[in-house]
Design brief:
The radius of gyration is 17 Å and the shape is globular. It has 245 residues and is of the alpha/beta class. It has a single domain, classed as Rossmann fold, CATH 3.40.50.300. Strands 3-4-2-5-1-6-7-8 form an 8-stranded mixed β-sheet.
């Protein structure tokens, strides 16, 4: 299963992605995670030390020039099959992380060359790997606008129970639909059972509703990791519901 996770910044998108990956790995599945967010926080969310996190692909200018080129001629179909092992790290047993970053985080002008390499690498992961793939997208709709994840099996849209977050979720869903991503679900984070979704919003079907966990709030004061909480069984149950779509 190849899934992308999207949502407004600050809604818990990366946390949900980390929980899903951890659940699948503990169920005996091989999981590849791709951090395609500007914040590059997926590694820390998994408990990975900063000095062990791979250098983001978009910051490796020599590699981009070698595979794609710059300036007048850009190779839109670069060789990437040897890059997976080179750019990834095993976080836990069966759980691998590849840090791609975003064009915005590359610190350069035109994003054509790095974007071509990002797209080629994602396409390779989607079509050539048999493992589960989870892509933590940049907050908002930027990655969808560049069409970097059009070949995934489905999209998980994460939102808080707020008007701004739900507006962004609706925008993400609409753009993904235009790109052909018909299989979508909505996940509400930090939401009580008494919250009702507005009927006027064109949102995907609700797959799961995560409450606020005080243990996570307490842990985040001393560690960036979101794993190994006392509520892991409850989180596992919600992850299972999401993955059934």
């Amino acid at each position: 299963m190849k899934l992308a996770v999207a949502g407004k910044g600050g809604v818990g998108k990366t946390t949900i992605c980390a929980w899903l990956a951890d659940y699948l790995a503990r169920m005996g599945e091989d999981v590849w995670l791709v951090d395609a967010d500007t914040a590059l926080s997926l590694g820390p969310a998994l408990g990975l030390d900063e000095d062990k996190t791979p250098v983001p692909l978009v910051q490796q200018k020599a590699l981009i020039q070698e595979r794609v080129g710059t300036g007048g001629f850009i190779n839109m179909n670069p060789k990437v099959d040897d890059l997976i092992a080179r750019l990834s790290v095993e976080v836990r047993e069966r759980l691998h992380l590849l840090v791609m970053g975003t064009i915005a985080g590359a610190g350069s002008g035109c994003g054509c060359a790095p974007n071509a390499l990002l797209k080629a690498l994602l396409v390779h992961l989607v079509f050539q790997s048999s493992q589960h793939l989870l892509v933590d997208l940049e907050a908002g709709v930027e990655h969808l606008g560049r069409g970097t994840i059009t070949k995934v099996d489905g999209l998980i849209v994460v939102s808080e129970p707020s008007l701004r977050a739900l507006n962004t979720a609706a925008q993400i869903s609409a753009l993904a639909t235009d790109l052909g991503l018909k299989k979508q679900v909505l996940v509400l984070n930090r939401a009580g059972n008494d919250f009702s979704l507005p009927e006027t919003k064109p949102l995907p079907g609700l797959a799961a509703r995560f409450p606020s966990f005080s243990s996570l709030e307490n842990k985040q004061q001393i560690s960036p990791s979101v794993l190994d909480l006392p509520e892991r069984d409850a989180i596992d149950g919600l992850c299972k519901k999401i993955l059934q779509f």
